[in-house]
């Protein structure tokens, strides 16, 4: 399987399972590709974007990132495609596009 | 020098927790557990025990507070019963899943409806698969001994699992018996300080309570199941060390007058003491009967049971909790299942009774033995076979 997929081939056996559901480090969610839950992805029309940051503020998964030019777009590794950014955008600059379409 | 003092079961449990020098007690009062927690509060209030008492608004919060305290490295104790036990239920799984060695005394009580306060094992039997180690005490000395040794077993680096000590509500919890208490320095020598391998630590953060997907949950559960089963040798080792130090040896299953016995009665908890008198009467009449007292419930002592029943033809199992619509009682079903593959020629009968504090007399245990033998002989068992119930 490709790198960063949810089910890598080297998952632990029961003998290797974490003791007491404890991981001796933090931030493991960073590795977790929630993006493959998505059926629709948000696409930003940069010509309409006024860089207000509402999509960045309201994204429930902190999956919206700011580009160097100040506009915003979704990090598709994490974006679950909930569409809240579409509702949040005051300029209707974001539309949901079906994956694979 | 040890002291022999009169204590009700609740106070015996509290004495054990006090002598274990617990750091945190979080609990919510409920009959018939209340005396355990009142006594712990007294110990802390009068300075006999230096510990934090966390008064909470519910049993769900009580065990949640214990979870946090135990994870932070505190020796943690709580107690509950019946409806409160049920309110704790989802947290039971979290504490065992995190392998936190919380010790809890359950003052066993029937479950509503009908509303009630009296003892049976309906509450305990709801927790069979929660991942807690569990033992049933048959008298107040055992309540003390099992509670004290529970800390040592639970906190052992090879175990690190929560431990439940079950005592009969009222018939043990509120009845005074002489209990031998050791000296504090003897307890201190028996019980080393608690050290969790991954305590909560802001400088070395760890992730407690991972999420598992269909790809990982099954392996974690299998590891948990095998881990719990693997604690049996440690439990025996600790109880053996307890015996060497304090002179009282405890076993997963105790045998009473089982030499040459063709029929074995199996009873759990305080009523096994009454059943001993029934065995005495039967033996005096020349009947080859003996008694097995099942103490250890989780992990289930399969090999000990197999050894204990060797030579017997009939096993008569007495149970104090109905499994409504299921295979008779939980202990009956478990023992029958445990013996089914390896003891093809053995006959087993199961009889239910003593719900919600109803007493059983010696004569009724003799009736249990007689009827159990008749069931074994005829091979016909009613699904709900009861004793001491009108009609």
Write a brief structural summary:
The complex is a heterodimer of chains A (101) and B (391). Chain A is mainly β.
Shape of chain A: elongated
Going across the biggest sheet of chain A, name each strand in turn: 2-5
What kind of sheet is the major sheet of chain A? 2 strands, antiparallel
CATH architecture term of the largest domain in chain B: 3-Layer(aba) Sandwich
Count of runs of 4 or more consecutive helical residues of chain A? 2
Rg of Cα set of chain A: 17 Å
The count of helical stretches of chain B stands at 13
Largest sheet features of chain B: 7 strands, mixed
Low-confidence stretches of chain A: 1-7
Mean pLDDT of chain A: 89
- State the share of residues found in helices of chain A, binned by percent: under 10%
Secondary-structure-based class of chain B equals alpha/beta
